[in-house]
User: Which sequence fits this backbone?
């Protein structure tokens, strides 16, 4: 049965995705739920408690309030907290019971915004989707509401970056800059991994204006419209990329800088920027997943399990390194155009186990091990969105993708 | 370096003196914050105590993740399965079918069937009016060899009724088959931890030849079933009381609720109740020994009517005298232990939280009575059992500070204190940022006079030896295996 799971866990859900995406932006995130969503997020999906404060709360929904549709208490409690804490925005995330009750979150957000003067919005979560969905929508909402028009900022921004004279003056875009979209600890672990990714890009001539959303403030994110290109490093970032493209015409490339794929990705970014400057408009129908361009055909000899963009990029890197066709199995809700012909999705443990039946070499989170063939070669790739903090120490030591050079494949 | 959010805020509403505090809820209710101290047991940890059983949860992804990873972190993923509930199940109203089919599927895939399945249904089942009787009936028909235990993960109900934790502590004893009572067996009901070997109850029962059975010590289904043979059930942990009452009623046995306490008078009264109800004839054989192991010896008059005969023969007075002598010795030992701890801690500020022990105000009272410098108590509500301690503290130490743990401001109020602070409990450790903390939850296996002495020992150890809160208090289920 698709919905039954005997042994493996489940990925981080949409509510936690919202919290994770907005954690560092100075807003207040309120989960409308009795209890469980809060402790799940707090315990298993968030690793920054000791590094940074964040206004993540739960409403403590009760049976009586749910039955009576007492939204007034929810609104009152939020407004009371906001009055004291003065968040930069208020985000509301629903859970299963409010979903079932048909709680009108957009209306509640509007009431709160009107009464407090603090920007408020809701993310249509219900605890039954993946984090990629919740985090993606949350960041897209930030892009929609808080990223300023590039022209307005041009004067103040000019002193920060050494502009390429004529081009910048015309476009108000900072050349050789990009935003990293779709960065949360759920896919990338601790900040050090993000810093390393930024360093990689900087060394290849691309300065990161903002990272959505780790290590940067809401203020920094508001300058995202000045970037020449957006780099979508996980599927979480795709809705934001589309918003920024719509608002500012910023083109985007999809891919994560990993190992031998990094150079190819940089080349794709350069080409994208060049072509975009030439054409002065983005092709909205083109899904620019750089890691799909040169993938090998043939029977896959290596299987990767995980989020589409990061695993797709790792697949590209591994194919270069080992010259073996790689298949990605994506068990998450994902967008069209992010998977290669060899790749597939898997819905549930049963299907995943079936797909892995003939797999010889598997890269996956260690908690997948029990459903992999006993004689397969299993390379551990801890993923916080799957195993939570269980392998955090290993991630801190080895990075989110491990050291590809250390891997010996026969 | 911790990055703070927002400006400095007024602590009003999250921090008050006990003088200003209302009983039983001293802080205004509102949005809730969950601090990253996770040593308290949740329903997964408690459910794992049932031997040869597995747990199956039927709920939405977000709720599921918390429980499935709890099991994984305690290296018990092989005893945990689940069925996800999706939007269409809510809209189509087929939650019964999904539950039955999902559980059946999981069980069919298992190579070896468990003796019991703790089946957890959730808020959604309740709100959709799911026919749980049908669910359990059909599952029982399909798997007659398996006992299905009705468990709930429905926190939406917990503010106006029983918590999922209380219901579980009842449900876990439902499979006990009625058996003839063994008058020389006592079962401790509903505790997550076995009582310390040196605890008063264990010493008393051991020295009188009684057998104490405890769920945490059961390794097999057969051992578990023996829990039902007790002549008397005892519960010590407040959330266990409801289940123990139900169990005693169902099996027609006596239930003694003997909560752990830091009050000499209450401990004495509880021991008296236990002795009276077990018909133990207390007789001191040896003088006071040093240490916990030999400070009392009790002999039981098992033969039917012996206790009554003693009474008739005027021995009751003698029994009481002996008991009082025992109490006196125990209290002397406690005072020695307290004085020793005080000599080491001196005037070091002490903060404590509700997670360390259900009777935290009682502990605060004991410490303040003995001159310790207790500055802050972390709690969100006050148990009715603590009303007298609350009143005493209000009267004698009105400036004692109470701090909430879930109030919204607690997320941003500065954590940490100047100078060395002893924290008793994980939440106190988190909020005070102290590396000198007593790392224990829910009262552990403490009980009675011995519990007081153990607390003093733990305080002294914590004072003398630093620990890493970032590593220790984030681990779920104190005392369980943890792979993080």
Assistant:
């Amino acid at each position: 049965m698709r919905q039954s799971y005997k042994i493996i866990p489940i990925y981080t859900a949409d509510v936690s995705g919202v919290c994770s995406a907005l954690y560092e932006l100075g807003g207040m995130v309120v989960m409308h739920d009795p209890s469980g969503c809060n402790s799940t997020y707090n315990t298993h999906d968030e690793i920054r408690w000791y590094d940074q404060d964040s206004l993540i709360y739960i409403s403590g929904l009760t049976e009586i309030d749910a039955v009576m549709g007492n939204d007034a208490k929810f609104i009152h409690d939020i407004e009371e907290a906001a009055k004291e804490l003065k968040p930069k925005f208020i985000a509301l995330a629903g859970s299963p019971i409010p979903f079932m009750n048909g709680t009108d979150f957009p209306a509640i957000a509007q009431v709160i915004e009107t009464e407090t003067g603090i920007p408020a919005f809701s993310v249509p979560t219900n605890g039954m989707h993946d984090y990629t969905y919740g985090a993606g929508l949350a960041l897209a909402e930030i892009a929609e509401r808080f990223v300023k028009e590039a022209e307005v900022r041009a004067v103040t921004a000019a002193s920060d970056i050494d502009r390429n004279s004529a081009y910048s003056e015309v476009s108000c875009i900072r050349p050789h800059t990009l935003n990293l979209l779709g960065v949360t600890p759920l896919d990338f672990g601790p900040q050090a991994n993000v810093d390393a990714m930024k360093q990689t890009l900087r060394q290849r001539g691309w300065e990161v204006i903002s990272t959505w959303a780790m290590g940067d403030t809401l203020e920094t994110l508001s300058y995202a419209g000045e970037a020449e290109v957006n780099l979508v490093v996980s599927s979480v970032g795709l809705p934001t990329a589309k918003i920024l493209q719509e608002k500012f015409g910023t083109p985007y490339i999809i891919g994560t800088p990993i190992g031998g794929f990094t150079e190819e990705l940089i080349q794709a970014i350069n080409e994208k920027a060049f072509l975009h400057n030439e054409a002065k408009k983005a092709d909205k129908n083109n899904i620019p997943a750089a890691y799909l361009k040169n993938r090998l055909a043939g029977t896959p000899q290596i299987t990767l399990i995980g989020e589409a963009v990061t695993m797709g990029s790792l697949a590209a890197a591994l194919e270069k390194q080992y010259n073996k066709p790689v298949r990605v199995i994506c068990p998450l809700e994902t967008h069209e155009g992010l998977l290669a012909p060899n790749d597939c999705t898997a819905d549930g443990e049963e299907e995943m186990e079936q797909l892995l039946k003939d797999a010889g070499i598997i890269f996956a989170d260690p908690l997948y091990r029990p459903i992999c063939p006993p004689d397969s070669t299993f390379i551990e790739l801890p993923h916080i969105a799957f195993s939570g903090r269980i392998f955090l120490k290993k991630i801190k030591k080895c990075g989110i993708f491990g050291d590809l050079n250390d891997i010996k494949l026969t | 370096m911790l990055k703070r959010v927002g400006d400095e805020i007024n602590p009003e509403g999250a921090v008050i003196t006990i003088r200003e505090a209302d009983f039983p809820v001293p802080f205004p209710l509102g949005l809730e914050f969950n601090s990253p101290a996770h040593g308290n047991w949740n329903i997964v940890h408690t459910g794992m105590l049932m031997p040869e059983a597995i747990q199956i949860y039927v709920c939405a992804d977000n709720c599921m993740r918390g429980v499935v990873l709890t099991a994984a972190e305690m290296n018990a993923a092989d005893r945990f399965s689940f069925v996800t509930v999706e939007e269409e199940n809510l809209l189509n109203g087929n939650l019964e079918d999904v539950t039955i089919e999902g559980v059946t599927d999981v069980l069919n895939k298992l190579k070896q069937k468990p003796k019991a399945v703790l089946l957890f249904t959730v808020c959604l089942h309740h709100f959709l009016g799911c026919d749980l009787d049908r669910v359990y009936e059909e599952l029982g028909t399909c798997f007659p060899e398996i006992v299905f235990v009705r468990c709930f993960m429905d926190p939406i109900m917990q503010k106006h009724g029983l918590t999922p934790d209380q219901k579980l502590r009842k449900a876990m004893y439902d499979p006990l088959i009625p058996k003839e009572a063994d008058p020389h067996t006592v079962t401790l009901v509903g505790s997550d931890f076995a009582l310390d070997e040196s605890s008063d109850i264990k010493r008393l029962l051991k020295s009188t030849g009684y057998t104490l059975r405890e769920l945490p010590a059961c390794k097999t289904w057969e051992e578990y079933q023996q829990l039902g043979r007790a002549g008397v059930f005892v519960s010590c942990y407040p959330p266990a009381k409801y289940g123990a009452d139900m169990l005693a009623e169902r099996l027609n046995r006596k239930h003694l609720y003997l909560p752990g306490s830091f009050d000499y008078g209450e401990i004495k009264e509880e021991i008296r109740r236990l002795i009276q109800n077990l018909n133990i004839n207390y007789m001191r054989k040896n003088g006071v020994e040093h240490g916990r192991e030999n400070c009392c010896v009790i002999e039981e008059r098992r033969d039917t009517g012996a206790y009554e005969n003693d009474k008739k023969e005027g021995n009751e007075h003698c029994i009481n005298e002996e008991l009082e002598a025992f109490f006196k010795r125990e209290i002397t030992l406690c005072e020695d232990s307290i004085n020793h701890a005080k000599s080491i801690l001196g005037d070091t500020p002490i903060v404590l939280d509700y997670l360390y022990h259900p009777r935290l105000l009682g502990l605060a009272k004991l410490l303040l009575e003995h001159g310790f410098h207790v500055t802050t108590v972390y709690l969100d509500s006050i148990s009715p059992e603590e009303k007298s301690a609350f009143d005493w503290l209000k009267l004698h130490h009105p400036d004692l500070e109470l701090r909430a743990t879930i109030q919204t401001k607690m997320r941003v109020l500065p954590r940490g204190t100047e100078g060395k602070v002893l924290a008793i409990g994980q939440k106190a450790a988190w909020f005070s940022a102290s590396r000198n903390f007593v790392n224990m939850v829910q009262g552990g296996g403490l009980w009675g006079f011995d519990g007081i002495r153990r607390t003093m020992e733990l305080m002294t150890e914590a004072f003398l030896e630093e620990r890493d809160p970032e590593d220790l208090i984030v681990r779920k289920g104190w005392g369980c295996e943890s792979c993080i």
Observations:
- Chain B touches chain A through 70 residues (CB under 8 Å).
- The longest strand of chain B covers residues 53-59.
- Residues 359 and 475 of chain B are 23 Å apart (CA to CA).
- Residues 283-304 of chain B have pLDDT under 50 and may be disordered.
